[in-house]
Amino acid sequence: MMQDTPKIDKSALPSVAIDGARIRTVREGKKLTQLYVANVVGVTTDTISRWENNRYPSIKRDNAEKLAGALEVTLEEILRQDEPEPDPEVAEGPDTSKPRRWTLLLLALIPVLALLIFVASRLLVGAPKALRWAPHFAAPGEVVPVQIKITRTAEESNGFILKEHLPSGWHLVSAQPGNAAVDHDGSIVKWLVPAGQGPVTVSYTVQLPANLPSGKSGTLRGEVVLHEGETNRTEPVAGSTGIQVGAYHWADSNGDGRIDDDEIMPAYYLCEDMKGIGLDWKTIEAIWSGKGYRWDAKGGFQVLK
Predict the structure, then answer these.
(1) Domain range holding 202?
(2) Among 85, 184, 198, 240, which is 20 to 30 Å from 43 by CA?
(3) Residues 6 or more apart from 303 whose CB is under 8 A from it?
(4) Based on the domain organization, do 162 and 63 belong to the same domain?
(5) For residue 115, is it within any domain?
(6) Model confidence over 94-145: pLDDT tens digits?
(7) Residue 233 forms beta bridges with which residues?
(8) Longest Cα pair distance anywhere in the chain, in angstroms?
(9) By CB neighbour count within 10 A (0-12 exposed, 13-18 middle, 19+ buried), where does 11 fall?
(10) Is residue 157 scored above 80 in pLDDT?
């Protein structure tokens, strides 16, 4: 007697198979550039292009999860679907006069599943999705950008509060929109986002303490606060959380001591989008034009000619 082949639990796999065509369709449908997605995931635009063209049919699971977060979909929506295996019982022509046990069980579960879907849909209404981008690296004393993109559907028109918790000693420099409120010790920044439809982008710059030791990481944490009836409900901000402190410019996403062609365009778009809130584009452009850079505590960033 043949035994059933055990199903593989995809959640336990270190690598997963992705659907490149589906990834491209979702990205273009949401009007996201390869540069933006690459910046959020922490890879190059060439890598995103190879993924979309199925050059790498399997990738690391953590990269796939970051990719799904950047595209604002679940991981399952970008995974390649396995072809259904033929049912040997069907091939042999089963006796259809007797309903199978699993069919009866499924029919019994339909009302329960319908109720669960209804309850979940009610809970999700009014819950916008917030995704944070932050640089991988930053030098002590440097001013770095952080951007949060919040999406909401036509049903999600209520206003909400966005809160960002900064690492100890880090302080807000400037923000867009400029209605940010800061608590007494500067560790929490809040925005009141009015009711409306469509996506919202909140950008801010934060300065690291000048005496931070290299190798230390700062963790960003945030949440969206929704008012429902007599109570408040919070939804966490997803995306980037940690910034590693070291002798690296924030635009140097791979920490190799230079800003190359793959890194200059995301930095340019970000500086244009966050113009007027403290970013030093001239230094970024000078490093890109030179052979690299060196950083020290006294002189800051020095361009290598």
Answers:
(1) 129-304
(2) 198
(3) 283, 286, 287, 289, 290, 292, 293
(4) no
(5) no
(6) 444 445 666 666 677 777 776 676 555 544 444 578 999 999 999 999 999 9
(7) 226
(8) 85
(9) exposed
(10) no
pLDDT higher for 170 or 60?
A: 170
**Cis before residue 84, ω within 30 degrees of 0?**
no
Point out the least confidently predicted range of 9-13, 71-75, 235-239.
9-13
- What's the whole-number average pLDDT of the chain? 83
- Tokens linked to 55: 């050059």
Clarify whether residues 215 and 279 are in a common domain.
yes
Query: How much is the average pLDDT of 259-286?
Result: 94
- What CATH number corresponds to the domain at position 255? 2.60.40.740
Establish if 274 belongs to a structural domain: yes
In a domain, 4, yes or no: no
42 part of a folded domain: yes
Average pLDDT over residues 170-195: 92
* DSSP assignment string, 75-142: GGGGBPPPPPPPPHHHHT---TTS--HHHHHHHHHHHHHHHHHHHHHHHHTT--EEEEE--SEE-TT-
Cβ–Cβ under 8 Å, residues 23 and 55: no
What is the rounded distance in angstroms from the CA atom of residue 285 to the CA atom of residue 305?
13
Please state, in angstroms and rounded to a whole number, the distance separating the CA atoms of residues 55 and 52. Answer: 8
The pTM of the full predicted model, rounded to 2 decimals, is 0.61
For the chain, the domain total comes to 2
- List, edge to edge, every strand of the sheet that includes 143-151: 171-176, 200-207, 143-151, 129-133, 238-239
In this structure, the chain runs to a length of 305
236 plus 148 within the same structural domain: yes
